[in-house]
Amino acid sequence: MITTSLDQRTASTAQVVAHYKALQSVERRFRVLKDFLALRPVFHYTEKRVRGHVAVCVLAAVSEAVITIDLKARKLTDPDLEGQHLSARRALRELERIRMVRFLDADGNQRQVITRPSPFQAKILAALCVDTSAWRSRVA
Questions:
Q1: In this structure, what are the phi and psi dihedrals at residue 23, rounded to the nearest 5 degrees?
Q2: What confidence tens digit (pLDDT) does each residue in 44-90 have?
Q3: What is the dihedral of CA 34, 30, 126, 78, to 10 degrees?
Q4: Residue 72, Cα to own-chain centre: how many angstroms?
Q5: Among 54, 75, 137, 140, which is 20 to 30 Å from 6 by CA?
């Protein structure tokens, strides 16, 4: 059951149901985005913070859409799901395994080392046009 303060002249039953479904879709999208960003539940009490939170969610949605478009354009498929395009979420999960470590060598120089991407990670990075040529061990 859906209730509304609108009367029949303002919105028909079909319009109220359509708006309710659209609202559910937006709320579902925000839940997905928060999961995509690994955000914990956040409660904001000022308009500035609410606007900032919404801006981060919108930025995440745009980033996810751009990643998805790039992966589809390169026809990258998920190795675990035959014939299915690689999702942005799966690609980012795969890329999370790449690490950068800084340490001091025997001479006291700070060095930076980045995990060598696996072949699959390299395909993802190439599809997203990420230049990895500078990802070599170097003195920082």
A1: -65, -45
A2: 788 888 788 778 878 877 888 899 999 999 999 998 888 899 998 89
A3: 90
A4: 15
A5: 54
For the record, the structure tokens of 36 come out as: 């995509």
Helix, strand, coil shares of the chain, percent, nearest 5, are 50, 10, 40
- Give the start-end residues of each E strand in the chain: 100-104, 110-114, 138-139
Q: What is the pTM for the complete model shown?
A: 0.62
List the Cα angle 114/119/125 in 5-degree steps. Answer: 65
pLDDT of residue 37: 63
Q: Kindly give, in sequence order, each residue whose CB lies less than 8 Å from that of residue 67, ignoring residues fewer than 6 positions away.
A: 88, 91, 92, 128
